[in-house]
Write a structure and sequence with these properties.
The complex is a heterodimer of chains A (254) and B (545). Chain A is built from 9 helices and 7 strands; from the N terminus they run αααααβββββαββααα. With 254 residues, chain A is an alpha+beta fold. In chain A, strands 1, 2, 3, 4, 5, 6 and 7 form a 7-stranded mixed beta sheet that branches. In chain A, a hairpin with a 6-residue loop joins strand 2 and strand 3. In chain A, helix 1 packs antiparallel against helix 2. The longest helix of chain A has 40 residues. The mean pLDDT of chain A is 89. With 545 residues, chain B is of the alpha+beta class. In chain B, the strands form 4 sheets. Chain B has a 5-stranded mixed beta barrel. In chain B, strands 11-12-13-14 form a 4-stranded antiparallel beta sheet, with helices on one face. In chain B, strands 1-2 form a two-stranded antiparallel sheet. In chain B, a hairpin with a 3-residue loop joins strand 11 and strand 12. The chains are: A alpha+beta (254), B alpha+beta (545). Strand 1 of chain A pairs antiparallel with strand 11 of chain B, so a sheet runs across the interface.
């Protein structure tokens, strides 16, 4: 009896899993069509939903291939554009300064809360960081009186991107994890980006939606093409996984 | 035809032959002449001077043997008993008793003595048959000179030569002076003869040296001066060669040195009798006179090059000023010729000609006329270019600026700027790139197109300080500028950095390449606005370049 029950259960489970995978395959196909339609219509809200379905289906199908990764990147990209931060990094940090030229700690905390609430899109040069081979700095030449801004992210994919596009300014989106004011006058704001939220922009429609001049700036259009090819040809997920492992190991060490 | 007999003329030396039988006549003539030769030698006395006698001393014995008759002319020296002697002839003369030598005969009395040589025991003497007192050589010379026709002054040189030989032989100072005087007379007569031929006169001056005339250098200089004076009355063709000779003559100095001491009194004297003045002048005055005549020559020579319309008057004036600065009136007159020529053609002048005209007018303190000429010239240029479109306007503006800059005419600078502004408007319709160039030129003059009108630097300075246009003119970037304005002011950036959030798009233009402004310009716009709506929010310095 028990054996019959186990057999029936296993058969039922297998049958359920098969159906689930069939549904997932069906959903992938459907989502692929919908993604193309939504992208063409630049309907990013619907696109996010379609992409989420495709990513879910890929997860059921255990797909980690480059095509699945590209869809995953596009989902993150769409999510970023649909959830851009409501405040501007430079404007918000500038607003923290008191008349004596030093940042108000209360305002800094408020600013940080506001800044981490959404994504920010950047197009800038990237420099290798001195302390780690995984960390890179964004070259953002803004100043706050005598203070400057240092924005970093521990991201092997971005490091690879930097190496792949040496001399160019890649376009990417990420969320801020932390903002630390300068310790003294003439110091640096230290802003850290979240590597899990990093996404290389590959779509003109997304960039335009983010307010970038993607339609009229040929340099940007060319850069987006190069980034699209890079995303479709590079196993960025493996790099992310390595970063995660590295972070876990570091946290355990601490 | 019958044969003719021969007949002789009165001299006995020329004959005529009558036509009879030619062969017989010829034989007859030869026979007669043959028979006559020895008797002629014995019968006709040979006339010899003392020097000739001396030159034939070796033949004296032969002549004595032949009994040859001789007529000797010479000068009495002394007597000894029945003998007397001639000056410089070592031969005693035996005076005939029937025709004795006059008493108290003065030494050097010219005598003509006829007779024959005797050889007695190898002692030679002269047996006198006839004796005649002659006139002195000085008197003969005077008579010979008097006999010379006026148109044959060269014969005087021959006479002088002849008597000089005698004077030299007898060391006769008086006769020597006479000979010299005759030669000088000959020189002066030839000088008169050639008075109208400057070249011949110049050449004749040299003969004074050849003949070693008294005061030879002075005389030569006078004749040369006379030649120059004579040349002044001739067409200019021969002047150049004569002037060249004058310049080459070492002792005719002074012609090249300007003489500012020449005064009206001297000039008056010179005009009256230039040659007389020269002849009576001392060396200093002669130098001045040579300069005076050179001036006249050179002036005529230079003025002969002056065109009838006066179009080369200024060049002529330059030559006059260079060669004869003592005559400023001639310089001014020549310049005035061309000034009048140019004034009559003012509209057709080019810039160089106008410059020339005004330079001369200003030199003579005729500034009003110079200004008027410039105005008139510009009016002509306006007429000339009025239908030539943009090119004509630009050219006209250039002409105004040329006059303004050359003669510091501010009024024409203003006119030129106005023409340039009009050209800018024309170019805006016809050739926009030209309009930019014209605007640049106007900017150099302190004019700029601001708020749709032309403003001077002062007017622009009075505009509000925040004015973006002003910042652009000054090469600055200020808040509120568009991307286009920034690019127009600083050019394209070295790189662009962008940061986008849900509300704002912030764009940073970085000018950090060598030679750029070294600034970071921040643009900001709302996410929904287009790139054209971006405005500069901040401008900062590049921290590390």
């Amino acid at each position: 009896m028990c054996g019959v029950v186990i057999a029936v259960s296993l058969t039922g489970l297998w049958s359920w899993n098969q159906r689930r995978q069939d549904n997932a395959r069906h959903a992938w196909r459907i989502a692929s069509d919908n993604i193309a339609e939504s992208l063409a219509a630049e309907n990013l809200q619907k696109l996010e939903s379609d992409l989420q379905q495709a990513v879910d289906a890929a997860a059921i199908l255990r797909r980690t291939d480059l095509e699945a990764q590209a869809v995953s990147n596009l989902l993150l990209q769409t999510r970023a554009v649909n959830n851009l931060c409501g405040v501007d990094l430079f404007g918000e940090l500038s607003a923290t300064y008191q008349p004596d030229g030093t940042p108000d700690p209360v305002k800094v905390r408020t600013a940080e809360q506001l800044l981490i609430a959404g994504w920010h899109v950047f197009q800038c040069r990237i420099l290798a960081h001195d302390s780690s081979e995984r960390v890179v700095s964004l070259q953002l030449p803004v100043e706050f009186g005598s203070d400057s801004l240092r924005t970093t992210i521990e991201s092997s994919p971005l490091r690879h991107t930097m190496e792949a596009f040496s001399g160019n300014s890649p376009v990417f989106a990420a969320r801020i994890v932390s903002c630390h004011p300068p310790a003294s006058a003439g110091g640096e704001w230290k802003v850290t980006l979240d590597p899990e939220t990093l996404t290389l922009m590959t779509s003109v429609a997304h960039c335009r939606a983010a307010g970038l001049p993607a339609a009229e700036d040929q340099e940007m259009i060319d850069q987006l093409k190069r980034q699209d090819e890079f995303v479709k040809s590079t196993d960025l997920e493996s790099l992310r996984e390595q970063d995660r492992a590295h972070r876990r190991a570091r946290e355990q060490a601490q | 035809m019958k044969p003719q007999p021969a007949s002789f003329d009165s001299s006995g030396s020329v004959y005529h032959v009558r036509r009879s039988h030619p062969h017989r006549q010829l034989l007859f003539i030869i026979a007669v002449l043959w028979g006559q030769i020895p008797s002629a030698a014995q019968c006709v006395a040979q006339t010899l001077t003392v020097p000739e006698m001396l030159s034939k001393e070796s033949q004296w014995k032969t002549w004595a043997a032949e009994g040859r008759k001789v007529l000797i002319t010479g000068r009495y020296r002394k007597r000894e008993d029945q003998k007397f002697f001639l000056n410089r002839l070592p031969l005693p003369f035996l005076a005939p008793k029937a025709n004795p030598l006059p008493e108290k005969l003065p030494e050097d009395q010219p005598l003509s003595i006829s007779g024959k040589l005797l050889n007695v025991e190898n002692e030679l003497s002269f047996e006198v048959n006839g004796l005649k007192l002659d006139e002195s050589d000085v008197r003969k010379c005077v008579a010979d000179v008097a006999a010379v026709a006026a148109d044959q002054p060269e014969l005087l040189y021959e006479i002088a030569d002849r008597y000089q030989l005698i004077a030299d032989f007898y060391e006769d100072r008086e006769l020597l002076e006479q000979a010299r005087s005759v030669r000088t007379e000959g020189f002066q007569r030839i000088r008169q003869q050639k008075a109208e031929d400057p070249d011949a006169l110049w050449e004749h001056a040299e003969t004074a040296v050849v003949w070693k005339l008294p005061h030879v250098l002075q005389l030569r200089s006078e004749v040369r001066f006379q030649a120059l004076l004579s040349a002044l009355n001739k067409p200019s063709a021969g002047w150049a060669s004569l002037l060249a000779k004058m310049k080459l003559a070492d002792d005719e100095t002074g012609w090249a040195t300007p003489d500012h001491s020449w005064n009206p009194r001297r000039e008056q004297e010179y005009q009256k009798d230039p040659l007389g003045m020269y002849q009576s002048a001392d060396n200093t005055l002669r130098v001045q006179l040579r300069r005076r005549i050179f001036r006249e020559f050179r002036k005529r020579q230079i003025l002969s090059e002056l065109t009838s319309d006066g179009s080369n008057g200024i060049e002529i004036a330059r030559l006059l000023q260079r060669d004869i600065p003592e005559d400023p009136a001639a310089v001014v007159a020549a310049e005035e010729k061309e000034v009048q020529f140019l004034l009559q053609r003012i509209g057709m002048l080019n810039r160089r000609q106008l410059e020339t005209l005004c330079r001369v007018l200003l030199k003579h303190q005729r500034a009003d006329q110079a200004d008027a000429a410039q105005d008139q010239w510009l009016t002509s240029q306006e007429e000339r270019f009025k239908d030539s479109g943009l090119d004509g306007q630009l050219r006209l503006a250039d002409e105004f600026f040329f006059v303004a800059n050359t003669w510091d005419r501010g009024d024409h600078q203003i006119s030129g700027i106005e023409v340039l502004k009009a050209a800018w408007t024309t170019a805006g319709n016809e050739a926009p790139p030209e309009a930019e160039k014209i605007a640049e030129r106007l900017k150099a003059f302190g004019w700029e197109r601001v708020q749709n009108q032309w403003m001077t630097s002062e007017e622009i300075s009075s505009l509000p300080k925040t004015d973006i246009q002003r910042a652009m003119r000054e090469g600055r970037v200020v808040a509120g500028m568009t991307a286009e304005q920034v690019a127009g002011t600083l050019g394209r950036p070295s790189r662009v950095t962008r940061m986008a959030s849900g509300k704002l798009m912030r764009e940073l233009w970085v000018y950090d390449a060598p030679g750029t402004a070294g600034v970071v310009v921040q643009f900001v716009r709302s996410r929904g606005e287009s790139a054209n709506d971006s405005r500069v929010s901040e401008v900062g310095k590049v921290r590390q370049r």
